[in-house]
Description:
By secondary structure, the chain is mainly α. It has a domain at 29-71: Winged helix-like DNA-binding domain superfamily/Winged helix DNA-binding domain (Arc Repressor Mutant, subunit A, Orthogonal Bundle). Helix content is 59%, strand content 8%. The chain contains three helices and two strands; from the N terminus they run αααββ. A hairpin with a 5-residue loop joins strand 1 (60-62) and strand 2. The longest helix is centred in the first third of the chain and has 22 residues, at 4-25. The model is unreliable at 1-9 (pLDDT under 50).
Amino acid sequence: MMSFMSCAYADVESTVDMILGGYAHVPGLRLTRDQACRVWALDETRCQGIFDAMVDAGFLRRGTDGAYIRA
């Protein structure tokens, strides 16, 4: 039986995979946090955390307009 933490980690991992896939398949994709929340059906807190981590990892960068784009 999987623990709650394992399920939560798998959920975040699959969400990150979907976001990475979105940016990989759509060159030039630019999304604000609010747009990303709607596209991937995420609450604001989870969305912000994931996007902050992706910026920290160097995969995304945040433009002066607040939109996230592939680094």
